Amino acid sequence: MSMLILDLLGTFFFAVSGSLLAARKKFDVVGSLLLASLVGLGGGVSRDVIIGQVPNAFLQPVYLVPPLLATMLVATRLVRETRVRRPLLLFDAAGLALFCIVGTITAHQAGLHAVSAALLGLTTAVGGGVMRDVVANEVPQVFNPRGVYAIPAMLGSSLTVLTLELGWFGVVAGCLIAVFVFVLRVLSIRLEWHVPLAGGGTIRNDDSR
Amino acid sequence: MSMLILDLLGTFFFAVSGSLLAARKKFDVVGSLLLASLVGLGGGVSRDVIIGQVPNAFLQPVYLVPPLLATMLVATRLVRETRVRRPLLLFDAAGLALFCIVGTITAHQAGLHAVSAALLGLTTAVGGGVMRDVVANEVPQVFNPRGVYAIPAMLGSSLTVLTLELGWFGVVAGCLIAVFVFVLRVLSIRLEWHVPLAGGGTIRNDDSR
Amino acid sequence: MSMLILDLLGTFFFAVSGSLLAARKKFDVVGSLLLASLVGLGGGVSRDVIIGQVPNAFLQPVYLVPPLLATMLVATRLVRETRVRRPLLLFDAAGLALFCIVGTITAHQAGLHAVSAALLGLTTAVGGGVMRDVVANEVPQVFNPRGVYAIPAMLGSSLTVLTLELGWFGVVAGCLIAVFVFVLRVLSIRLEWHVPLAGGGTIRNDDSR
Fold first, then answer.
1. Residues C173-176: contacts with CB within 8 Å, 24+ apart?
2. Which residues form the Glycine transporter domain (chains A, B, C) (predicted)?
């Protein structure tokens, strides 16, 4: 039950990031709904297909509520992007935080061992956002060397599987992990943390981008 | 049997749209065949994977005929794009019309309930075209705010599932729905219908795009 | 056993191509690891999902070793691209050569008949590279009309299924097919072979691209 709530909440956060991107790209409300659905449901559908289950999103119509809500919030400008505030990044970070936990638990319950469960949790968390950016014809945020994106999700998935294996996982542990992932991701953007580049070397903080 | 014919016909229409896009992007005939296969078979493969079946396209080699035919028609310039005529959009609309019906029926037969079947029908209809545009590095047509794309497919899937549930579905109903979806899509392009933008507001008809 | 080695080796070659592309696009090392994993594991995961198996890559953590190794080799500049040498294309060709064989065998063992097995082998071989290029926001190499890409893989898959059906497949046949596919692909780039364009006509060798 609480898993369903977490999953719907994560779907909602990601869905808002999708609708905000749709607004920035000047898509219409139908495109907004589709992009919100893709980012909100894409990671979980991939996860369920990989572990051989019919995806929840196609079995329970309640999963359509978060994308609908997100589309309405953005179309009515109750949530919107401005030059100074970047709600897209915040909602995306919140989705990331919840999905790395939900994804890992789902994979763990399906019987995958620890490393695979963490890996599938990471895939769930990162997958929807990659699909959002790819279909909107942008380089996925996960590849942006400003800030760290996959590392908080990796840590979140690993902590989830660790606490699950130790029998410590519960509401408190889940909340702590989610807050930890969210704060880490947001801090990394604010403080412009970065890791070395793929081909060696680092970017300088004064590089324009 | 008639389902197989409808499916192959829809595959053919989408495949032609893929080969026409390949021609516009100056890909070669092998790229044309791959793009035609992706758009023609991608939606159905996704649908089958989601409902947990081995995709028809990989079980029945006859599914390779439509992409081969489409590639030949475009390579020999029997079908081609000009500045004034846009066969790509027409073939895409025909594929959309057939696939929202075939996809919904397949999902319904697999035991999904009404809302899920309609949703999966929409996914089948829209999925192949999104894959075509994404791998060709274009913003998917479904996000183009000129004309409506997903709405005709949503209506087609909904009508299909409604007539199926009421026991009214048959050749006549299927043809009527397909024609309705096709005409709606084509009219929306000609008359430049549009729905509100994702971030509120509308585009003006005299905007250049 | 030898299948696992071949699969890991193919994964490694593709993974290096992913990390080299990440370096060229100025992604960071985490992005490099993700892109290496996507290209190395994406084709095989798609293949396993299509035939209804839980993907090996999520069951056996050893599949994470090749992407990790590739990321390290590129980050330490032990493997790197220069203007004159194009290791990306060579590693990609090596991955293509091994994956069209491994993919075909896997599909054949899963009980698909000859044509489907060859088709799925081709999908495995080409799929990872398409995902790599799509998420990095590039037009996939398979669509580049300079050189032939899919044809060597098609021939490799067909030869594999033919020798399997005839009972001639073994280490020697596998090695010969792999070398044949690799050499064909590399020669096609060096000698700038091309096939007719999708819309008819051919490109001229002196076209700039």
1. C174/C6, C174/C101
2. 5-75, 90-163
